[in-house]
Amino acid sequence: MASSDVDQKFLGRYAQQVNNSNPFLSSWLYKVLGLSVILSRKLLRARRLRKLDTTRDTKSLQLYHHIIWLSREGLVMVEQYIVPMTEGYIELKVLAYKLRASFYHIYVLFHNQPSINQAAIPSFSAPDKGKGVDRSSIRSSPNPMEGGPVQMPGSLPPGLAPISVPKPSASFLLPAMNYIPLASSCFSRASVLCDTLLSGSHPLRLSVKIEYSAYVYDCLHDGETSRNIAKQAFTDVYNAQEGMDDEMFEDAAQLVSILGKFTTRGLGSSGTSSTPRIGSAGTPETPRMNAKGTAGSTPNTGETVVPAVPSPSPRARERR
After folding, report:
1. What digits encode the pLDDT tens for the residues 93-133?
2. Which of 51-65, 92-106, 301-315 has the lowest mean pLDDT?
3. What is the pLDDT of residue 140?
4. What are phi and psi of 109, to 5 degrees?
5. Is 112 helix (H, G, I), strand (E, B) or coil?
């Protein structure tokens, strides 16, 4: 997300490089870097809490509120102060658009309406204190001889007030709405930029593809598209011809290992594998068994095969 190590490394590098030429941009890059470091710790803690229970105490809600507030402030910094000043840069432009998509990704995970899963912040409806049932809507019982009242279809029963739809508890920080279209558009824009401006093995490009694949899988619940994004990025890495230094090579190698896991994410044990397993059917190491229970063809290695049970001698045959 917006707190990945590769993103933070490039943020610090460019904040230092443009310090003399553009100190205003450098200051905002340093601010986003500091926010990203704090946000990474909050996200790691929230990920652990979400495995247990999202509504167990007030502290977890405060943690989610803090994550949303940090994401909101980071998005404002990126959209208003960083993106407009990245036209003269290549890597920084891709990084800025990737950060914008990352913050919207957090919106979708923690504050989307409707929620994409049960791990989002729970919704609470404010109790209406001091007000009971609306007595004016209660009508007296009709005379049995006159028959009961005719209720119009779609109307509420007598004495039942309309139920208000509960709002997310973090609505005071951010409007409750569907952020999936915005997040999908930002990821598409960042993906096009990295494909156009960066080489296939560039760490920033791999970072964009990894989070894009994770977003499609976790938020859009489209496993096939998520795996295709990872597979295409995996293929682009090995087709790249550009050179890189040792530090970028280490970052790319770490991200490629993550991409390799994403190419098979969501596939069960019955999913097809690109590498055959040792001892599986059809491998020359293990002969296959036919329907009668006898072994099939044995590989010809040029050596004499000693039978497991020796054949009887000629004298034993005569006795029989």
Report:
1. 999 999 999 999 999 998 888 888 644 444 444 444 454 44
2. 301-315
3. 53
4. -70, -40
5. strand
Element holding 221 (H helix, E strand): none
* pLDDT, tens digit (0-9, with 9 covering 90-100), for 164-207: 555 666 777 888 889 999 999 999 999 999 999 999 999 999 99
168 phi, psi to nearest 5 deg: -60, 150
Residue 287 token pair: 């002969």
Q: Shortest CA distance to 123 belongs to which of 136, 111, 133?
A: 111
184 in Cβ contact with 220 (< 8 Å):
yes
Distance CA(12)–CA(202), nearest Å, equals: 17
Q: Which pair of structure tokens corresponds to residue 314?
A: 């000629």
Identify any residues that bridge with 123 across adjacent strands, giving them in sequence order.
168
SS3 at position 24: helix
How many Å apart are CA 268 and CA 178, to the nearest integer?
31
Six token digits for residue 35: 């926010």
Please tell me what DSSP assigns to residue 154. T
Contacts of 79 by beta carbon, 8 Å cutoff, 6+ apart: 100
